[in-house]
Amino acid sequence: MATPLRIAIVQMNIEAGNPEANFAKMAAKLEEAATANPKPDLIVLPEMWNTGYALDRIQSLADPDGTRTKAFMSAFCRKHGVSVHAGSIARLNGTTVTNTTYIFDTQGEEIGQYSKIHLFQLMNEHLHLDAGESLGRFELGGVPAGTMICYDIRFPELARKLALDGARILFVPAEWPHPRLHHWRTLLQARAIENQMYVVSCNTVGESGASTFFGHSMVIDPWGEVIAEAEEVEMTLTAEINLALVDEVRGRIPVFADRRPSLYQ
Ligand SMILES: O=C(O)CCC(=O)C(=O)O
């Protein structure tokens, strides 16, 4: 794993219900990000970027078995020698659909997969999607990492479990709308501070039905400082993270050694 690790976050406006348009736009944005100077080590994408929240038609729009997404991302990573956390897509699994993320290494190998385990009832996800049943752990060039998706950040026990399992970076692709910017910011910072790890989030921008997504993708260090933050426009945000800071912060305030799980588990 390169140190520092250079990350590019593609904060994109997704066209709900138009996977063709979204694929074409994503391909262009990925190409632009991978050929930037300096080149990123890792590119991070947002939630449900193939279909957006066209949930009433999701069965016909979702990517069967993720085949198209996986083939595209794998070839892209190989071509550019870059890793991709592919946000998430609507994936058709026979007759059901999941909100699923894939992670690829610089050789184009799939190194992680996760389907959102907490479905967001306020946007009717529970009526159209199936929840995942396992956690999002993977290793990025030997560095243990975790992923969750959007609403999952409201569940601190999930982030803690990933941290206890070794995660040093937590990835959060999202489609998080107004008026809950203060929840987004506070929850992301809290997950970083309490688990003393990097949090790398990628939100969308633009409108879909009654929702307006506000962007503000951000990278937060293990001390809780926001080291990069996007505005409310389409853009690619870049940041460099230094994983040695995880050990430094964990050494300064030994939260993990001071836990009393026998009293609260
Ligand atoms: O928890 C929230 O406020 C937003 C969650 C969300 O939009 C989602 O999970 O898709």
Automatic annotation (TrEMBL):
Keywords: Hydrolase. It comes from the Bacteria. The keyword Manganese does not apply. InterPro entries: C-N_Hydrolase, C-N_Hydrolase_sf, UPF0012_CS. GO terms for molecular function: hydrolase activity. It holds the Pfam family CN_hydrolase. Residues 5-243 form the CN hydrolase domain. PANTHER family: DEAMINATED GLUTATHIONE AMIDASE, NITRILASE-RELATED. Belongs to the carbon-nitrogen hydrolase superfamily. NIT1/NIT2 family. This is Carbon-nitrogen family hydrolase. It comes from Cohnella yongneupensis. The lineage of its organism: Bacteria, Bacillati, Bacillota, Bacilli, Bacillales.
